[in-house]
């Protein structure tokens, strides 16, 4: 019973298993190394305009020919009896690459699904205004231009190392769009002590890609103390300080003289 129930799900969901294995291997593998030693379609995430190494491997030791079929530009980097390593470059849209080889008169093929993504190339942080008085509102805006897919993207606003807010995006569209996070907050004195920054983290690990992390340039907020004007100072002195002094003086005087009356 046990081996059967263990085997069934594996056979019923070969893609899921391969997908998991591919994701696992891509974690171990460095970025750009194409080949994993197993059959089945392979999902690859490639940054728009970037390249990908593809290792076409035959299943036998003496294959007749090994071919990589693609309309894209490619160069052959290494040519061995059992495998060929290609570099496919300038990948600008989703593609399917086909590796084929002939083993003992039988043709074998392996498909590579390439999905183009748009990594965060820039993270733009804007404080507006850049100079505020304590207690007034200011806006922090972080813009990550032309990214896709939005799903898996987290944008975090930071003050020093403190997280002010973070936002995870949704959307599987593969056309690039801007991701924007805005946060309104009241200026405190300590806001002027730390730099503000914004982090974009794109996590494509569930799709066979990697983790891409980008940080904005730090921005400083100038926090101004509310400066009381001279008139205010004078009025405060007259209204608060002088009566206080008078009362204190009177109380002290009475206290001092009380023993003489007793
Ligand atoms: C290509 O794949 C084969 C079989 O998995 C492996 O032996 C070979 O080292 C790989 N070549 C490169 C350059 O990764
Ligand atoms: C492939 O690269 C060559 C040389 O870099 C270039 O002349 C050619 O136009 C490219 N072809 C494609 C389809 O990009
Ligand atoms: C890369 O592809 C784009 C669009 O497909 C093309 O305009 C550009 O000339 C290509 N660059 C190279 C180096 O082949
Ligand atoms: C975003 O914030 C949530 C809770 O507010 C936290 O659990 C999560 O780890 C944060 N993510 C990042 C990338 O900082
Ligand atoms: C922040 O304030 C601006 C006006 O100052 C407003 O247009 C914007 O919607 C506010 N954003 C948030 C997230 O509250
Ligand atoms: C803020 O960023 C600037 C660079 O723009 C750096 O010189 C400075 O040390 C940073 N200040 C703090 C408190 O991190």
Describe this structure in words.
The protein is α+β, with helices and mostly antiparallel strands and 262 residues long. It folds into 2 domains: 2-117, Sandwich (Immunoglobulin-like), CATH 2.60.40.10; 124-224, Immunoglobulin-like (Sandwich), CATH 2.60.40. It is built from 3 helices and 17 strands. The protein has helices spanning 2-12, 14-28, 230-261, and strands at 42-47, 50-57, 66-69, 73-79, 83-91, 95-103, 106-117, 124-128, 131-133, 137-147, 153-159, 162-168, 177-186, 195-203, 211-215, 219-220, 222-224. The strands form 5 sheets. Strands 11, 12, 14, 15 and 16 form a 5-stranded antiparallel sheet that branches. Strands 1-7-6-3 form a 4-stranded mixed sheet. The chain has a 3-stranded antiparallel sheet with strand order 2-5-4, with no helix packed on it. It is rod-shaped. The N and C termini lie far apart (107 Å). The model is unreliable at 1-38 (pLDDT under 50). One 2-acetamido-2-deoxy-beta-D-glucopyranose is lined by residues 139, 182, 184.
């Amino acid at each position: 019973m046990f081996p059967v129930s263990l085997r069934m799900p594996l056979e019923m969901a070969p893609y899921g298993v391969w997908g998991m294995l591919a994701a696992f291997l891509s974690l171990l593998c460095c970025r750009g190394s194409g080949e994993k030693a197993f059959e089945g379609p392979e999902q690859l995430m490639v940054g728009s305009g970037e390249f990908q190494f593809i290792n076409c491997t035959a299943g036998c030791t003496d294959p007749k020919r090994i071919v990589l079929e693609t309309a894209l530009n490619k160069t052959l980097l290494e040519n061995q009896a059992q495998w060929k390593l290609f570099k496919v470059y300038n990948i600008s849209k989703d593609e399917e690459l086909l590796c084929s080889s002939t083993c003992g008169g039988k043709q074998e093929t392996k498909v590579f699904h390439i999905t183009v993504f748009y990594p965060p190339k820039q993270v733009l942080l804007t404080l507006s205004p850049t100079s505020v008085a304590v207690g007034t509102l200011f806006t922090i805006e972080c813009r990550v231009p032309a990214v896709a897919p939005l799903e898996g993207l987290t944008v975090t606003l930071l003050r020093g190392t403190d997280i002010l807010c973070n936002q995870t995006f949704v959307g599987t569209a593969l056309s690039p769009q801007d991701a924007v996070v805005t946060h309104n907050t009241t200026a405190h004195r300590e806001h002027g002590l730390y730099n503000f920054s914004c982090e974009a983290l794109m996590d494509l690990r569930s799709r066979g890609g990697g983790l891409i992390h980008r940080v904005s340039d730090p921005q400083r907020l100038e926090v101004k103390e509310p400066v009381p004007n001279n008139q205010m100072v004078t009025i405060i002195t007259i209204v608060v300080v002088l009566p206080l002094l008078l009362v204190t003086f009177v109380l002290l005087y009475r206290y001092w003289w009380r023993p003489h009356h007793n």
